[in-house]
């Protein structure tokens, strides 16, 4: 199995980066030793040099996996996807199985289906339903969609990246309370989440409730917000709930956010400001579990 092969070669090195895009949208990378996952098909003049720098630090010429949570343009941009496939040449592409309803989404899906550089894998509900929930059997876990909904936001892929020494929960653009409630009952999520990527960029849509934050208990939360941040993400109510739940949050509004393992039990978080020209802060956290 792929995860077993990777785990046999793992050191404590785990690094996550939330990239500023200079506009609306989200872009992240999660690197465990040399296994490089790019989360979202966004790759422009603002984040490109930083993605390439991250790859160069591990002497990588291509990425291991491209993971796309939604067909919305702020998660998957056709022109940027084309550049990713040309320059980064992912060995695996994981993408939504719900049918896109925009020209950007349809063109992106066609481009992925034509890709010859690696495996392309739609994350269908059947696959999500049987995604193992036992931490002794697997590492990364899929949680959504378990069915295709009429609202595209709630078809976003929810995935728990837990291959490294700290874990990352990606929630996409999900809004539905029933999805939230299902996550709150999951024993893995309520005991293991270190880094939470706020649902729908930190919008107050009744998903990220105080009860949800207290149930998941992440060490830190990250909001993907553009520099101008016209939607004021994360929303004021979300910020209040994060403080009440005792969760430190970071935003890409002023610069990239980097999470880096220090050893098997500790990781630090740094937040750049001034468009990635200056480091603002550095804080150390204890991870909730490690392998």
Short description:
The protein has helices spanning about 1-10, 50-55, 80-85, 105-115, 125-130, 175-185, 190, 210-215, 235-245, and strands spanning about 15-20, 30, 35-40, 65, 90-95, 120-125, 140-145, 160, 170, 195, 220-225, 250, 255-260, 265-275, 280-285.
Keywords:
single chain; 291 residues; alpha/beta; nine-stranded mixed sheet; six-stranded mixed sheet; 9 helices; disordered N terminus
| Fraction in beta strands | 15-25%
Give the spatial strand order of the biggest sheet.
Answer: 6-5-4-3-2-1-13-14-15
Average per-residue pLDDT, rounded, comes to 89
Number of strands: 15
Shape: globular
How would you name the oligomeric state of the polypeptide chains in this document?
Answer: single chain
**What structural class results from the helix and strand content?**
alpha/beta
Largest sheet descriptor: 9 strands, mixed
Q: Kindly provide the radius of gyration, computed on alpha-carbon positions and rounded to a whole number of angstroms.
A: 17 Å
Termini separation:
17 Å
- Helical percentage: 25-40%
- Which blocks of ≥5 consecutive residues have pLDDT under 50? 1-9
Give me the number of helical elements.
9
Q: H/E series, N to C?
A: HEEEHEHEHEHEEEHHEHEHEEEE
What can you see in these coordinates?
The chain contains nine helices and 15 strands. The longest helix has 12 residues, at 103-114. The chain is 25% helix and 25% strand. It is α/β, with parallel strands linked by helices and 291 residues long. A nine-stranded mixed sheet has the order 6-5-4-3-2-1-13-14-15. Strands 7-8-9-10-11-12 form a six-stranded mixed sheet. It is globular and about 45 Å long.
């Amino acid at each position: 199995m792929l995860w077993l092969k990777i785990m046999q070669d793992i050191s404590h090195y785990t690094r996550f980066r939330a990239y500023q895009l200079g506009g609306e949208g989200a872009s992240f990378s999660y690197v465990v030793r040399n296994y490089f996952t790019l989360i979202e098909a966004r790759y422009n003049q603002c984040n490109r040099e930083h993605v390439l720098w991250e790859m160069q630090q591990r002497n990588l010429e291509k990425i291991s996996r491209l993971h796309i949570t939604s067909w919305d343009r702020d998660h998957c941009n056709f022109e940027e996807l084309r550049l990713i496939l040309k320059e980064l040449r992912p060995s695996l592409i994981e993408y939504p199985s719900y049918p896109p309803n925009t020209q950007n989404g349809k063109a992106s899906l066609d481009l992925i289906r034509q890709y010859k550089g690696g495996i392309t894998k739609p994350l269908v509900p059947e696959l999500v339903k049987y995604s193992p929930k036992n931490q002794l059997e697997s590492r990364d876990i899929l949680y959504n969609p378990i069915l295709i909904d009429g609202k595209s936001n709630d078809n976003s892929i929810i995935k728990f990246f837990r291959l490294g020494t700290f874990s990352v929960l990606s929630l996409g653009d999900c809004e539905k309370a029933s999805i939230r409630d299902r996550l709150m009952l999951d024993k893995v999520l309520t005991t293991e989440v270190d880094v939470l990527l706020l649902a729908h960029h930190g919008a107050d849509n009744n998903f990220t409730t105080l009860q949800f934050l207290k149930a998941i208990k992440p060490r830190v939360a990250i909001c993907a917000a553009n520099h101008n941040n016209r939607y004021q993400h994360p929303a004021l109510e979300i910020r209040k709930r994060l403080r009440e739940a005792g969760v430190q949050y970071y935003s890409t509004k002023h610069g990239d956010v980097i999470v880096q393992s220090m050893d098997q039990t500790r990781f630090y978080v740094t937040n750049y400001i001034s468009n990635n020209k200056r480091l603002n802060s550095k804080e150390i956290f204890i991870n909730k579990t490690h392998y």
